[in-house]
Sequence to fold (433 residues):
Amino acid sequence: MTSARSSLLVCTLAALTLAGCAEPAVELTPGLKAFVGARIIDGTGNMIEDGALIVRDGRVEAVGPSDSVSVPVSAEWIDLTGLTIMPGLINTHGHVGATRGLESNSDLYTRDNLLHQLGLYARYGVTTVFSLGGDDQAGFNLRNEQDLSLDRARLFVAGPVVVGDTPEEVEPIVDEVARMGADIVKIRVDDNLGSTTKMPEEAWRAVIRRAHEHGLRVAAHVFYLDDARKLVDAEVDFLAHSIRDTDVDQELIDKMVERNVCLSPTLMREVSTFVYESRPAFFDDPFFLRAADADVIAGLEDPERQARVQNSKSSQGYKAALEVAMRNVKALADGGVRLAFGTDTGPVGRFQGYFEQLELERMVEAGLTAAQAIMTATGDAAACMQVKDDLGTLAAGTWADFVVLSANPLDDILNTRSIESVWVAGNPVTSGN
Fold:
């Protein structure tokens, strides 16, 4: 997703002249790029003014102030003076593949649809997605193909959500998820505001035990404070939603910090349940519209659909739950719990890529600073998902997955939408289809 700024200066260091780029003085080294002059937010909490980012074969070779980084003379030189570089966003709770337009079913889970959605995420600055459930073999195949040629968001997969009422039912499913090579195991501990039966405690405890025997971590869909307490006591690894029934207490905060349990707020998941009771303001946002499907917008504006949302008890219940969730985001952050950026995008009406941008805005509205919100989506997200050696920061050895912005998001979180270009493994992401 590239803006009208199309004159990024590209040349070799040896060829620089006051007049611009002369004929190359040396032969360029394939796969070697130098991004120079930009402000660099590195995903660790540090910011470098007038930085240099050296990328070789898809990974960061060096990063630091321009006057302290040695730029190889054969590097392709990309002048980003006045712009900002930050790591690509990591969505720790998304879903990929099984929707198209206003349709949702397993038949849509195809390689082509997965690639389309991963490209869409990337064009909005999301360069990694952990798909927490509903993942089939095509998703595993794409996960296994993440190499130097990547030009779409990276994908990690949980396989099917593990469901069942007894240990005897769930343990074979966990075994199969492990056999498939899942990155994490997903369970749901919720009754959907009383409309369904909650997974029995003995069953979800068995999932956690069995997954840990396989060396796999467990992410739990959760709603209630009491369930969150029990899950943390049972050594769950990740809470995949906010606690939304009541305010969190110090006991839970202390246990999550002690056991290093992360939580993904997914505030936009709540928004999606009620926002289409009328026409949302973002339907007029040019940043949204440049990749939006007009038929989907028309379907969501249908008066009958809006009336159903207005009259839905669950929609109004989740609207109230959002306020609780936002209070808890601030309380958890203040208490030292590590938050991992996530949105639960993928289902109909949860716009992949764009909702991640709205999530950052919501987190700041909840009381986080712009710097804190960015950390949840970069270095902290990578640490929570145990991929910090490869992703989430711009440091020597990590993949060169980053976003170039025309404005500083530390000044205003809305500036994460000022996308000039997106790069994955050192490759520019194209506009797609």
In short: The first strand starts at residue 9 and ends at 11. The CA atoms of residues 219 and 238 lie 5 Å apart.
